[in-house]
Amino acid sequence: MTDLADGTFKMFLFMRRPDGSSIGYPMTGLVRDGVISFTTYRKAAKARYLLADDRVCCVVVDRDNIRRGTIASGRAYPIEGTEFTAATRPGESRFAVPTSVTDAVRDRLESGKRMAFRVALDETRPVRRVEVPDAQA
């Protein structure tokens, strides 16, 4: 993958609603061996949308420079929670994730309250200059 190293990262996940309109979510993702994975609650709209239409676009924010990143598009498919937790490594996140949060995610994956997805990538490309306009009313 372009500009993505193994570990956890911040991303924006875009997908389609049933009416065809797009929707995006800020997410924490995981890259392992060039593959993006993430979790969500099984009952969340996000999970329903992905199960109905698997096309996704992930905008992954560069860990060292928020004005850079990678666009990764492909198709998301469900994986076993154990596959996701097996790919995680304690202490590898570049941003603070409390142990209580990682423990809760792991417990909810094991109980089935959360589910994991993996993205089969079709394309990746760098975004070299992301402009963030002022949010003035």
For the largest sheet, list the strands in their spatial order: 1-2-3-6-5-4
What is the CATH first-level class name?
A: Mainly Beta
The CATH topology label is Pnp Oxidase, Chain A
Separation of the first and last Cα atoms:
38 Å
**Percent in helix:** 10-25%
Rg, rounded, reads: 15 Å
CATH-wise, what's the superfamily?
Answer: Electron Transport, Fmn-binding Protein, Chain A
Poorly predicted regions are: none
Largest sheet: 6 strands, antiparallel, barrel
- Which structural category fits the helices and strands? alpha+beta
CATH architecture title: Roll
Number of helices: 3
* Mean pLDDT, all residues: 84
Q: How much strand content do the residues show?
A: 35-45%
H-E string:
EEEHEEHHE
Shape call: globular
Report on the architecture of this protein.
With 137 residues, the protein is an alpha+beta fold. The chain has a single domain, classed as Electron Transport, Fmn-binding Protein, Chain A (Pnp Oxidase, Chain A, Roll). It has three helices and six strands; from the N terminus they run βββαββααβ. The chain has a six-stranded antiparallel barrel.
